[in-house]
Amino acid sequence: xxxxxxxxxxxxxxxxLAGRELLEEAHQEARRKRTxxxxxxxxxxHLSEESVKKACAxxxxxxxxxxxxxxxxxxxxxxxxxxxxxxxxxCAFKRDDTTLFVAFLDIEDLKKLSFLSQKTxxxxxxxxxxxxxxxxxxxxxxxxxxxxxxxKIRTSVKALPSYxxxxxxxxxxxxxxxxxxxATENLLSLLIEHARLFHATDIHxxxxxxSLRVRxxxxxxxxSAMELPELGSTLLVARAKFLCGLSLxxxxxxxxxxxxxxxxxxxxxxxxxxxxxxxxxxMIIRILEEGMKxxxxxxxxxxxxxxxxxxxxxxxxxxxVLITGPAQSGKTTLLYTILDTLNSGKLALSSxxxxxxxQLPYVNQTQxxxxxxxxxSRAFRGVLRQDPDVxxxxxxxxxxxxxxxxQAALNGKRVFATIHTNKQRGEVPLLxxxxxxxxxLSSALSGIITCRLMRRLSENTKRVKLTKKEFSLLKEKxxxxxxxxxLREEGIIGENETWRDIHVSIPEGDGDYDGVVGVYSVLMVTxxxxxxxxxxxxxxKIEEEAIRHGAPSLxxxxxxxxxxxxxxxxxxxRVCMS
Length: 578
Fold this sequence. Notes:
- By secondary structure, this protein is α/β, with parallel strands linked by helices.
- It is built from 24 helices and 18 strands.
- Strands 12-11-13-14-10-15-18 form a 7-stranded mixed sheet, sandwiched between helices. Strands 6-5-4-9-8-7 form a 6-stranded antiparallel sheet.
- A hairpin with a 2-residue loop joins strand 7 (255-263) and strand 8.
- The longest helix has 28 residues, at 131-158.
- The protein is globular, with a radius of gyration of 26 Å.
- The protein starts with a helix and ends with a helix.
- The mean pLDDT is 83.
């Protein structure tokens, strides 16, 4: 479905909901920020989300539904699995024999109608709804799933086959048989589904003296999920090895593998890693959601100047762009988003990865294989001989790859690469100390994007004004005048509002956080920055030069998101000042 902007303007004018000045202002903002016109309208203090959604629904010729006050049937909600509902911002709220009535939050998600129809086998009748309605549906969805998972896991554990260690040949044969047992299969599937419910990126399965500990990594931190009987350790590891085609007899050395399974109507890639310990094999399962297409800079959390600079960097015809941050900071997702943005069919796109996290159509992805002699540098050199327009590198780990990247950029290629670092803008001098060529790198470098992930606050979290202590801390760390100007320009606060009028969200506990939001700092490498790099300048001097030319810092971007209500100030300080 396509929303005609002119039709929407006409309806809003005739209905007396908005004046021409407001509509023109929203139109210009949408063009400047490369966002949808209706999204800018919802950000206006003169129009509520509900008013804009009702107008959009009228123009599209579909109903608008407000389901936050209605009793929802969990069985109907479950027709569209929770991960699918969350990903596509859609919830089923009513059905009959042939038709499923689905409420969508975003107009863009209406494009998923045929996909949902194919997955559910029902005719989809779409409606638009508001964020509070969708949040209520997702919370009910999660509550229902949490109640049912416990019983299912206990049932699967009781049904596990009795296993005793035997002689080597007999043991492998027995393990292979038990790895295909229905109870073992169900238990591993349930653990993965349960972990996905909590948006975990990894499952840690660790043998203890007389039991098995299961932990989930959520937002970078490990949380205990459950303890299972000792028997489960051997069988779960055997099941995972079986799926990945790994050796069941090898329990003395580490193994790695990969497989794809379908959960809740969605295909999920799993990366398995096993490691022998004193008490048995420990296993890590990395959960990789397939179907990366559809991510945008705006969707990741880029706003304002960062958004404009990110687009400018991607559209450059040549140059090296570095994506930096610690583990679990969103570097890989950003790298794939850049590839997806450029994936128009007009460019030759290639990548060198170790490992390949997601499979992208029309991108020539090369997996490093050291055992077969395909090292990162050898793969990169080979890709450069394939006449690519764009090359993406999963990580630069040393001066050789850095030098190759810089040389490729100087030869007219667009190179995007990630670097693991805990510093904000100290990564380039850090690599130069390891042997990089300063003049070559400074000439090739186009920009640096620094990433972090913060916990996203749930809707309807309590809003309060800034305290004097919080404002004093802000004044110490950022240019509050500059930040106030940005907040006004982005329409986040009113033209006449000051820091005294600004509200931020206060969570009552970890339960008020739901998902993640990115915080970014985009540094355009100007000639002044190139000169500093060529002189091996300190990270502080480079950052001072960038800020002097208007580059937003991580902390500033985080504060903007706190004022928007996407996260809390405490979370911003924790992530951006640690």
